[in-house]
Amino acid sequence: MILSKKDIEVRYAETDQMGIVYHANYVIWMEIGRTALIEELGFRYADMEKDGILSPVLEINAQYKKPVKYGEVASVHTWIEEYDGVRVTYGYEIYNGDGDLSVIGYSKHACVKKENFRPVSMRKYFPTWHEAYLKAKKA
Description:
- The chain has helices at about 25-40, 45-50, 120-125, 125-135, and strands spanning about 5-10, 55, 55-65, 75-85, 85-95, 100-110, 110-115.
- The chain is of the alpha+beta class.
- The chain has a 5-stranded antiparallel β-sheet. The chain has a two-stranded antiparallel ribbon with strand order 2-7.
């Protein structure tokens, strides 16, 4: 399994009145982690989109354990939990500045044609990406 780690400096605008990261920002951080993982594997979403393929979110989940606060550096850990050639589930753990687990989550995506949102096979459209996902996913 390949694990991507991306540090994020918590900005004031990402927090609520208590100085704690607003819950929706963790979903944005998951996207940052997912993009970092894809780039570490040697690919870019933008290249996929140029070819008329999108990867919409089908489902997203976040379980909040401990807060991340303004001024801390959060660490987003991302991996491929499941992959079947069309759908992929990314796993996430986000740690606060003390190294405590703050959020556990996942997001499920599919690859679809831009013009009609019909699912496509990564094996057929992006064979190199497909092979990288097979090698990178959690055993």
